[in-house]
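Hi V.,

You were right to ask for the full record rather than a summary. Here it is.
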Amino acid sequence: MVPNMDFEAMRPRLTAIAFRLLGSVQDAEDAVQNTWLKASAAHTEDLRNPDAWATTVLTRVCLDELRKRHRRREEPLFADLLPTESVAADERYLRREDVSRALMVVLHRLTPAQRVAYVLHDLFDVPFREVAKTLHTSVASVKKHASRARGRLERATPEPFAPTADREVVEAFLAAAAGGDVDRMVALMTDDCVRVADADLLPPGVPTVVTGARSVARETSSFADRIRAAAPMLIDRRPVDVIAPGGHPFAVITITTVDRRVARIEIGRPPGFSLTQGR
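Predicted structure:
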């Protein structure tokens, strides 16, 4: 073990970095354990900054995994196609550490270099020169990767949404849905409100189209746990709410209002994610 390296003290930060790089608690913990093994075998006597050394080793472990996925052209999977226990563990970590759900959704879509540059520099204050060493590239190149990642995040996750009257209605409706408050949902909907959903997102026997405020509210209340895993985002410049348990996209909710009432709810698959590929 490198002298003066308190690896257990580093572990929470290393896990936080690895989770954002790999998108999975299990993968993050594996990467941290791999880093610990490398630290245990190291004999660098003149190491001045153990934290920076461990961060670099961890990042290279994660980068190897990200590049393997990229070479295999793996696309991120929908949440319901991942192991239930893994998604549950990711959700617990995301909530406990207050990780942005929308951030994780967008990070899944970045290239390995963009993801590393953004996570290390923008989220964990690692200097660009250190990131450049980790990626074996120039500082200018790292800055470009971080800028491109930042641009994608800004386009997808405006903060905050414009405080329009319609958005206030949508947020109030989703809050009521997350709490299973049927009466409050009904009060926020038009009498002839319609809910249309992709059949692949529904349990067997649940209709793809439901009409009428109270019918929609009752049906929606049965999916309160999914609503609680939603985050506001922009897709094609349209405000939507993405259901992403553990940061893994599952569905997109698009709500149309008429005269400050919810008139139509559409639930479909988020674009850019895979039904068949993934790790």
